[in-house]
Design a protein that fits this description.
With about 400 residues, this protein is α+β, with helices and mostly antiparallel strands. Helices cover about 35% and strands about 30% of the residues. The longest helix is centred in the last third of the chain and has 29 residues. The structure holds flavin-adenine dinucleotide (FAD).
């Protein structure tokens, strides 16, 4: 056996698992096809339980100076604020009563750096091309940096290889769900939107022009905000991403606040899928390999990190402490429950609420949100759900 654990994929989820395992004396190899961390715009919102977990590895204090704390988030329509929620209400529940915004690649870079001080082998530029399970463990075939095929054997394989996971496909685990017809258009603008009344996170509901507006931090700009919107499914990217088209969309969503200085724009497709099982023998799935969802609520990256901690603790119990392998089935049950009952349910509900067409239902939704926000206990309960604290606690109750 070459390693106790081989991790396929060096995104944030695979890297967290590698660091946790290495720090607990597990022999681990991580194979990542890219030569370095991808810098594309992806997850940027960290919820309180994620910061608590990362603190166990000493990562939270390293990332907090690199991003922005957002204690208050808003639900808006295009006319203005509908309701505001202050995470300060959760002060008794968490040491991190705020959302924290920072591009996820910064987390990945910090993790890679910390892994250098461990015995873990983190091999960038290595593409896994096949996984064959055996009586005890599996054989992993991969292409090294020179394109030569090599093999490794490990007792446990973790597929943290993203939405198109080869580990999941080769294991024959189904990935049921659906894809939304429209693409999402993501932009970065440098306007000082706080001066326009936006708190650091705002969900702007509208049947056609809904948007998510998030404050980011980047030393190159005094102000940097991500504005994500629905893109017309019938238009090709070159039309959607033309400067005039992007400018027009931004002006529709935030009339009177332009013209906007747009420093990034891109489109991407969004899906709702959960793997049928997260463990099959020695194969384990985590992060986007196991579940994907729309970004409304910021659950994808956070849920993946929560998988990473749950799975890592159980692997340490099995490998280092003689624990029963059933613990790995429990990982699957707990995190599958969260993916379906919390993340899928909430992210789909968020999207439907933001794009609700029926004016009566929109008004009812707005009234309910205002009533929730103005009652301290109801607001606290709502924040417990949306900050993912409840999902982590409920998962822990599953035996
Ligand atoms: C535009 C966008 C916005 C998002 N916004 C948010 C947000 O605000 N909040 C939030 O919580 N989440 C958000 N997400 C989701 C978040 O980015 C993902 O959930 C997160 O990246 C999952 O991490 P991961 O490590 O599981 O997978 P990934 O980050 O996809 O990493 C998988 C890694 O595996 C590697 N790999 C794949 N195949 C192989 C192979 N055969 N061999 C070796 N390596 C391989 C890939 O190169 C990659 O590095 C967003 C996603 C997108 C696309």
């Amino acid at each position: 056996m070459n390693a106790d654990v081989v991790i396929v994929g060096g995104g944030p989820v695979g890297l967290v698992i590698a660091l946790y395992l290495a720090r607990h004396g597990v022999d681990v190899v991580l194979l990542e096809v890219e030569l370095e961390t991808a810098k594309e715009q992806r997850g940027a919102a960290f919820h309180p339980p994620t910061l608590e977990m990362l603190d166990e590895l000493g990562i939270t204090e390293a990332i907090l100076p690199r991003g922005v704390k957002v204690p208050v988030w808003q639900v808006r329509d295009r006319a203005g604020v509908v309701a505001e929620f202050d995470l300060g209400l959760l002060r008794d529940e968490t040491g991190y009563p705020y959302r924290f915004h920072m591009p996820q690649h910064i987390l990945s870079d910090v993790l890679v750096d910390r892994l250098r001080a461990t015995s873990a082998q983190v091999l960038h530029g290595h593409r896994v091309v096949g996984v064959t399970t055996q009586a005890q463990g599996a054989e992993i075939r991969f292409l090294d940096r020179e394109g030569h095929e090599q093999t490794l054997r490990a007792r446990w394989i973790v597929g943290a290889d993203g939405a198109h996971s080869l580990v999941r496909k080769q294991s024959g685990i189904e990935f049921p769900g659906f894809s939304w017809p429209e693409r999402f258009l993501v932009t970065n603008v440098t306007q000082p939107l706080e001066a326009c009344g936006f708190s650091g996170a705002a969900y702007v509901g509208d049947p056609d022009q809904w948007a998510v507006v998030l404050k980011l931090s980047d030393h190159r700009y005094q102000d940097l905000w991500r504005v994500a919107m629905a893109a017309d499914p019938d238009l090709p990217d070159d039309q959607l991403l033309g400067p005039a088209a992007v400018q027009a969309r931004l002006q529709q969503i935030m009339p009177g606040h332009g013209p906007f200085d747009v420093v990034y724009s891109n489109t991407y497709r969004v899906h709702q899928r959960v793997a049928q099982q997260f463990r099959k023998g020695c194969l384990l799935l985590a992060g986007d390999a196991a579940h994907i969802n729309n970004p409304l609520g910021g659950f994808g990256l956070n849920g993946g990190v929560h998988d990473a901690f749950n799975l890592s603790r159980r692997l340490v119990e099995v490998i280092r402490q003689g624990g029963a392998e059933d613990g790995l089935d429990l990982y699957g049950r707990q995190r599958h429950y969260v993916a379906v009952e919390h993340v899928q349910a909430q992210s789909i509900r968020n999207k439907k609420q933001m794009e609700e067409r029926d004016p009566v239902r929109r008004a009812e939704q707005a009234a309910l949100l205002r009533a929730t926000a103005s009652d301290k206990e109801r607001a606290r309960q709502y924040l417990m759900e949306t900050s993912m604290i409840n999902s982590v606690r409920r998962a822990a109750e599953i035996t």
